[in-house]
Design goal:
Layout (H helix, E strand, L loop, with lengths): L1 H47 L3 H16 L2 H15 L4 H26 L3 H9 L4 H31 L11 H12 L2 H30 L3 H12 L1
Family: Belongs to the binding-protein-dependent transport system permease family.
Keywords: Amino-acid transport, Cell membrane, Membrane, Transmembrane, Transmembrane helix, Transport
GO biological process, one term: amino acid transport
């Protein structure tokens, strides 16, 4: 009974602040994921390029990002970026998160691009299309469609990873939870409440990506082809 009373007290006392912090979390997530998607596309092109030096640069970047804990990268990138450019905590945190997620998104795009039949690239060239034009009009739309399930998963991970910017003073959801539990001396109940907020955000992201998958009929053509092969 005391647990429920404490939960109600937290919602009553910090409800508005939690909502404001949730909006900052969503904004931070979207900004960082836009940065990550751009970085991911660039390094995915590096990976599939015939220019070896570009492939090596992409390999080093991806290895470094995947080889270190996120909190270490966040602190390193945050203080590194802040020492060169005068940026707000929010902007520097979004850049740091974007650089981190970009490595994983690069591998997602790389895999989806390489999954497209190379015959389509050759067909585009035979029609006189330059490499980048064929990539933009033929390969990338199909690659993006195939990458949606993995991108959805990575975007949800990015949402949860955004909680770590609390340690660089960004006033997002987890940062407010830290302040609230220090004031009300109810850490268990406070983190329970903030967990509910994160679960709701994850549910919204999941539903949006499920809707996008259905709208684009992700996997539909492949399933039809499999059925055709079985009956052939």
């Amino acid at each position: 009974m005391n647990f429920l009373t404490n939960i109600a007290s937290i919602f009553q006392t910090h409800g508005i602040e939690f909502l404001k912090a949730t909006l900052i979390t969503v904004e931070l997530t979207f900004v960082s994921l836009i940065i990550a998607t751009i970085i991911g596309l660039v390094f995915a092109f590096f990976k599939v390029s015939n220019i070896k030096i570009l492939g090596k640069i992409a390999d080093i970047y991806i290895f470094l990002i995947r080889g270190m804990p996120l909190i270490v990268q966040l602190m390193f990138l945050y203080y590194g970026i802040s020492s060169v450019f005068v940026l707000s905590d929010f902007t520097a945190g979004a850049l740091a998160l974007g650089i981190h997620s970009g490595a994983y998104i690069a591998e997602i795009f790389r895999g989806s691009i390489q999954s497209i039949d190379r015959g389509q690239v050759e067909a585009a060239r035979s029609l006189g299309m330059p490499y980048m034009l064929g990539m933009r009009r033929i390969i990338l739309p199909q690659a993006f469609k195939r990458a949606i399930p993995a991108l959805g998963n990575q975007f949800i991970i990015g949402l949860k990873d955004s909680s770590l910017v609390a340690y660089i003073a960004v006033s997002e959801l987890f940062n407010h939870a830290l302040s609230a539990q220090a004031a009300n001396y109810m850490p268990f109940e406070t983190y329970f409440v903030v967990g509910i907020y994160y679960l709701i955000l994850v549910l919204i992201f999941t539903l949006l990506f499920n809707k996008l998958e259905k709208k684009l009929d992700v996997g539909g053509r492949e399933k039809k082809n499999d059925k055709t092969e079985k009956f052939a």
